[in-house]
Design goal:
Four copies of one chain form a homotetramer. With 203 residues, chain A is an all-alpha fold. Helix content of chain A is 79%, strand content 0%. Chain A has a single domain, classed as Tetracycline Repressor, domain 2, CATH 1.10.357. Chains A and B meet through helix 6, helix 7, helix 8 and helix 9 of A and helix 6, helix 7, helix 8 and helix 9 of B. The structure holds a DNA duplex (21 and 21 nucleotides).
Chain lengths: 203, 203, 203, 203
Amino acid sequence: MNETKQKILDSALDLFSQKGFSAVSIRDICKVVGIKESSVYYHFKNKQAIFNELLQHFETIATALMCQLEQGLMVPLENFEENLFEKICGCFFESYLMDEYCNKIMRLLSIEHLYNDEMQEIYDFWLFDKPLNFQTKVFSVLTKAGIVKTSDSNYLAVKFYAPIFLFMQRWLFCGALTEECKQTFRVNVYRHVNHFFNEMGDK
Amino acid sequence: MNETKQKILDSALDLFSQKGFSAVSIRDICKVVGIKESSVYYHFKNKQAIFNELLQHFETIATALMCQLEQGLMVPLENFEENLFEKICGCFFESYLMDEYCNKIMRLLSIEHLYNDEMQEIYDFWLFDKPLNFQTKVFSVLTKAGIVKTSDSNYLAVKFYAPIFLFMQRWLFCGALTEECKQTFRVNVYRHVNHFFNEMGDK
Amino acid sequence: MNETKQKILDSALDLFSQKGFSAVSIRDICKVVGIKESSVYYHFKNKQAIFNELLQHFETIATALMCQLEQGLMVPLENFEENLFEKICGCFFESYLMDEYCNKIMRLLSIEHLYNDEMQEIYDFWLFDKPLNFQTKVFSVLTKAGIVKTSDSNYLAVKFYAPIFLFMQRWLFCGALTEECKQTFRVNVYRHVNHFFNEMGDK
Amino acid sequence: MNETKQKILDSALDLFSQKGFSAVSIRDICKVVGIKESSVYYHFKNKQAIFNELLQHFETIATALMCQLEQGLMVPLENFEENLFEKICGCFFESYLMDEYCNKIMRLLSIEHLYNDEMQEIYDFWLFDKPLNFQTKVFSVLTKAGIVKTSDSNYLAVKFYAPIFLFMQRWLFCGALTEECKQTFRVNVYRHVNHFFNEMGDK
DNA sequence: GATGAATGAGTGTTCATTCAT
DNA sequence: TATGAATGAACACTCATTCAT
């Protein structure tokens, strides 16, 4: 709605995700937006408030996406697998990990969580607890349906998610998020997912 | 050799690993060491030089450890597996990932690599390329020896290392490195390693 | 007349008398009034203009009160003393020193006069010159009437007013103007006034 | 000892006593001293610390003076009165109220006490409680010695101190402390003191 | 080896004010 | 009448660094 405020948020996220919160000055943001420093304080109480608004927006988006994912688990079994694959790839990879906004926030969290307990919790939630929790549920459903034999859904979730997490750190949360990076990530992830489901089918 | 210089290095690493390079001031370091700020400049050209010396020392240690690990691959096949297990656990986990010095440097790299291309390279080398490369070699040897059937050593390395990497990020590079964290990490890793080798044996 | 303007004046006086002119921001005033900062400039040219209007209003009130007091001196001698006592207490204490508006202005003057020559003059006029002048006149009348023997009306005025001034500073122009403060002030002043007139009667 | 630090203290006191603490900027002080703003922070933790050091020094001086005064009360009765007069004038007027350092601090307190509870207490102590307390003691001794007849030492103290307080506010804590101001103050006070002791002798 | 003293550049923030709407 | 938006000037304070001693 408000143009300047949005520009501030956008520029701030850009810079924060590149250098971290404290390494970016209000001056830096203003230079990009093209306003004077004092103007920032018309739109935000202080520097922290910019960060908070960015984070809050992320949590709204991410929560919505996760809801969508979880609804995928309710789908009738006959087209479960196919639907799941689509959801994980569509929702989780494309709209979440590789979405520009979410990706930048996660880079930012990657920086801040290391010296900020509050960020640590948020980071853990969105990068470890939530995804592992979801995958565990997936494997529970698959086990109940007899598609998967193993009963340790937890460990299965780790085995499934860990390589994806590694590829994320390697290709998604480093340097600029170029199309090349995304592609490398995608190739690696898809190969892993295929391998994984093939092996599962074998047993 | 020089006591004060060593104290500066130690204190700096402590603080850098907790808050990141730029968030730590010369003042902060001096407060811990118990000297005046100007004294730092007798021992180091500038703040960056402290960082460089810390990093260089790490690379010396890490290189030595990696050499030791690689030598484990030359061992005659009869006691290969047993020896390997010991090496990986002893060298890689205890002396590297959980060693106080190395751990601190890696936390520091975790912070810096996100907005510093040079650090990015170093981080990638020590946390992705080097470990994955080594594991690939291990599985190549095991394949040649007929112990492992799969021919894709690369993917095996990923499957083996990714959960360890995830546990590292989750328990080792967050908050303070308490004994509790270490223990949680150890339990998770050892369980994974056991699972992994059991499954490999099954096939 | 104008509601918003009056609210601004009231809130400003409240705040100015508590913290001094320069320590109160337009923001502070607006927060209390419930308007935006730019709106103030519709009603007043600038911050100083608010102050000026408050001061001017005070001078109108105070002048009127002082006129009333001075008229008390014209009263026929038979009920002079009784009438005087009532006037001094009613007009000077209750309607002037302890009246909410006047009290706030005088606190404000107490602050501003210390670093503002113009305020210095106004302060001196209303807190020293005017009251001492009036008391001198009172004692002149009493002397002429033979009620008082001393001829030095000036010094009598000081002896009469000084303790009142001290009590004012002690209880009226400090912290919040609570009923308790007022009462302590009243008790001390009345005791002094009684003592004073008793002693005068003795001689 | 340290020249620059002393200059900062001196200049700060000068400015604070003229405009109040918050109306004086570090820049202002530095302009007078002839140093850069950042240099101030080598000598003082922050702006408040300058104020605190000034106040503390004052309290040391003032306490010493008050001790000296109180020792005057122990003097044998024969030369009590004469000695007292000298002490009050020498110590209290010349070395305290009119001493440059003390005078400036008291002006400063006059400003700050109006919107700062801590300063309020200090102000009350040094300008009301302490002097009135001391005078009460003086009159108690004089009463015991039969020199004074009245038993209400408290009210005597007020009658003695109040005019002095009024003259202080009128001539000492306003504008610049010129020799002219001092002289006017002195004349008024000495006249009062003489009157006072004459009247006391009469009864 | 160490430090007292200083500094220039920079940081986040506040404030009175302006002006088009 | 009121406000959304902006701004220049100021503020207290921090930091890495220098240099004479």
